[in-house]
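User: Fold this; tokens only.

Assistant: Input:
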Amino acid sequence: MSGPRVPPLPEGEWSAEVAETLRTLRGFAGGRVLNVFGTLAHHPELFRSWLGFANHVLTRTTLPPRERELAILRV
């Protein structure tokens, strides 16, 4: 396989809602949009729900960083 099965949605195709959300997330990656965000832009409702989950897993978990990353990779 030479590329992702579901490529990130190009910026020109983002809905207004997705564009606004991604503008706020650019700060986490040095001004660029992470591929996972661009890929989730295909489905704005899922993207919104996933952000809540991701926020909990990344910032509100009691797991130590190593175990947290292993869980993320495993899923």
